[in-house]
Amino acid sequence: MINANVLFEMALGGGLVAASGALVAQARGKQAALRARQAAEAEVSRVRAAAELSVRQVRQAAAEEAEALRRQAATDREWRQAALAETQHLVERRLPRLVDVEARRHPGVEVPGPSQALLRGSPWEDLHQAALDLVREAVETTRASVGRSARAGVRGVADEAQTFLTKLQMKIDEELGKHPHATAYHQSLIEIDHFATRSLHTLQRLRVLAGSWPGTQRANASIREIVESARGRVGPYERVEYTYRPDVGELFVEGRVVEPIVVALAELMINATMYSSDTVSVYAQQVPAGCRIVVEDTGLGMNAFQLADAERLLSSRTLLDVTALEDERKLGFAVIGRLTHDYGFRVDVGAPSASGGVKAVLLVPTALMGEAPERGEASPVPLEEPGPAPAAAAPAAPPAGAPPQTTVSGLPKRQPKQLMTLPPSGPSQEAVTDTADAHDLADGFEQIRRALSTGYAQNDTDTGGFQ
Asked: Is 383:159 a contact under the CB 8 Å cutoff?
């Protein structure tokens, strides 16, 4: 039998075991709680560190973006200032100088390039250059249009005036045949005829520069006739001394080029008499390449610049540009240049002159030399315009060796003319001439009148001729 003590001890022991177990469990719980707390604190620290890192990264990114924006803003501001400065440079310097060059034809003016290095190779440079090209094209197109209209007006007016002057000369020839020589009336008619001849020559040079032919078709003519015909178109013709040699003077030139050669030779004589107060020597020589006619004066000659300019005009087919009209009296070399290019003869002004003046040589190539015309064949054939019948038949050519025919005052004797309806055999003129009506001609004449007035107003102090 179990007594009470044993039971008490057993109960006490059990209680102690239970209490120990509870204490162990409690200790273990505390340890677990401690570990959980430590883990939580570690997690919080990790999350906090990650958040702080993220915040720093965001702040850094924001700072970098702000810096990039500041740099972009600075760049944009620099580009804007450069674009504004370049546009101002375009408007204030480049465009005005381009207009000076293209529209006003001011010599020695250079159009500057872009001023802002930042814009080199950028679309700004391309756009500004496109604007300059557009202005240049507009000026050229306008000038070409005005030039065509003006030249058409010149040709129309010149045709009409040349017809009237030709009829005037026919009337003069008729009167000369009625009245004896060495009378005051006869001499007056000779002087009037001389003025009419010079007026015709002035119209011819305008016709040539306006892209037309000289307006007169001739039969084959001798070198003597060509020289005398050109001499008769010079104001101070008495200062032009022609040394006649029958072996050369009676060589004949093809009729197709006679009048163009006469016009060119007259220009050389006019130039020589204009720049020399002494006698101008004219003589012809036969050379292996053909026949050359020399016009030599005793003036001051030409400097290197003038010679280069003359050679440039002689080698080009210059057209009358009424939008940049120079002194019409200085267009002689341009007239000769067009004629030599169109008809195949040559003119050179670079040969040295023993007198120190200008020695101009007109070479008629062998291919342009012709035969003497048939007896009774009309020598000069003016405009193709219809007109009255000739007053008298053309006289036969003088015999070989005969001196040049002149009037009592020494003026080269012009042969009576016959009007024929021959088409021009020279280069064709601009097509617009053939379609111009009276109103167009009147408008063209008015344009020329204004251009001439402006041109002479700008050069009214310059009294020089071409040289």
From this structure: yes
Measured CA to CA, the distance from residue 284 to residue 362 in angstroms comes to 9
Cα–Cα distance measured from residue 407 to residue 385, given in angstroms and rounded to the nearest whole number: 28
For the chain, list residues with pLDDT below 70.
1-2, 318-330, 375-467
For 183, left (φ over 0), alpha (ψ -120 to 50), or beta? beta
Nearest residue to 173 via CA among 416, 410, 406: 416
Of 210, 259, 265, the residue nearest 237 (C-alpha): 265
Q: Interhelix angle for 123-178 vs 438-458, to 10°?
A: 100
**pTM for the predicted model, two decimal places:** 0.61
Q: What is the pLDDT of residues 167-218, one digit of tens each?
A: 998 998 888 888 777 788 888 888 899 999 999 998 898 888 888 888 888 8
| Half-sphere exposure in the Cβ direction for 123 (13 Å, CA) | 1
Is beta strand 346-351 parallel, antiparallel or unpaired with respect to 290-296? Answer: unpaired
Q: Name 365's Cβ contacts closer than 8 Å, sequence gap at least 6.
A: 289, 290, 344, 345, 346
For the chain, the farthest-separated pair of C-alpha atoms sits apart, in whole angstroms, at 202
**CA–CA distances in Å: residue 259 to residues 115, 205, 337, 346, 411:** 55, 12, 15, 14, 19
Q: Compute the half-sphere exposure of residue 391: CA atoms within 13 Å on the CB side of its CA.
A: 16
- Judge contact between 360 and 350, C-beta under 8 A: no
